[in-house]
Amino acid sequence: MNLDLLRLINKELEDGKSGVLCTVVRAGGSTPRDLGACMWVRCDGSTEGTVGGGPTEKIVTEKALEMIKEGGQEPVLHEAILREKESEGQSVCGGEATILLEPLGFESEIVIFGAGHVGRALARLAAATGYRTVVWDDREEYANPERIPWGRIIACPLQKAFDEGLISLDRRSYVVVVTRGHVLDEEVVRKMEGHLVAYLGVIGSRKKIASLRGRLIESGVKEEFLDGIYQPIGLPIGAETPEEIAVSVLAEIIAVRRGAEIHTLRAAYSEEIVQGRKQS
């Protein structure tokens, strides 16, 4: 096992990146690499390490990229036959190998914009329930590993976080907007337009939500996008404290992820906005 490669992979996972770890878990006869040889396949197709080169490595890389594209999270075994006749002349080593392909870094994640009391409480609960957790704030005194030791912490201007790829979002991302103020909440929501995420929720009262929505529409944000936002955020359990609000938000995210009947769960809002719309 290549320890330097494993350290590199661990660093990339800590930075929020993902890929497929390919490891030779069985080797028989004459093979180009021994048991434990490994290769890291990134989402952009670049690789580190090797499982033997040649056609076998090409096939394994293609399989890894296919897994990434399809969003598969379960490990896959690839049987490589390295005998000339059985590989139609592509391999002449004479042996065979089994290579384990493990997707890493593709777990569902909760991305929290805002490291205040609610953001901190939610980060703690999210990490405890097995979600990858990312917390952003432009205030380093709030967004730091000492104050929030759960997950990856980003402290920088919002524009920099997006421009430099410090925050990457996809269909496995559950995004929660709980920043320190209405103006920054609005800025975050505007940045979110065009990103396909699993969930987007914004904290705030009905009055704040209506005001935020109006300003965003005036600035050119599409109503269709705004209609997809969960607001008020969280299930209606009468939450008051930061910890209670965090429970309600996490419960809603779990319900969305697991395919629960979200409109029924939110029915207590009655004529209030449900996922950006009034109930029909």
What level of helicity do the residues show? 25-40%
Beta-strand share of residues: 15-25%
CATH architecture assignment of the largest domain: 3-Layer(aba) Sandwich
Backbone shape? elongated
Give the number of helices: 9
**Cα gyration radius (Å):** 23 Å
User: How would you classify the helix and strand content by structural class?
Assistant: alpha/beta
Order of helices and strands: HEEEHEEEHEEHEHEHHHHEE
Walkthrough of the structure:
Helices cover 35% and strands 22% of the residues. With 280 residues, the chain is an alpha/beta fold. The chain has two domains: 3-104, no CATH class; 109-278, NAD(P)-binding Rossmann-like Domain (Rossmann fold, 3-Layer(aba) Sandwich), CATH 3.40.50.720. The strands form three sheets. The protein has a five-stranded antiparallel beta sheet with strand order 3-2-1-5-4. It has a five-stranded parallel beta sheet with strand order 8-7-6-9-10, sandwiched between helices. The chain has a two-stranded antiparallel sheet with strand order 11-12. The longest helix is centred in the N-terminal third of the chain and has 17 residues, at 54-70. It starts with a helix and ends with a strand. The relative contact order is 0.10.
List keywords for this structure.
2 domains; five-stranded parallel sheet; five-stranded antiparallel sheet; alpha/beta; 12 strands; Rossmann fold; 280 residues; 22% strand
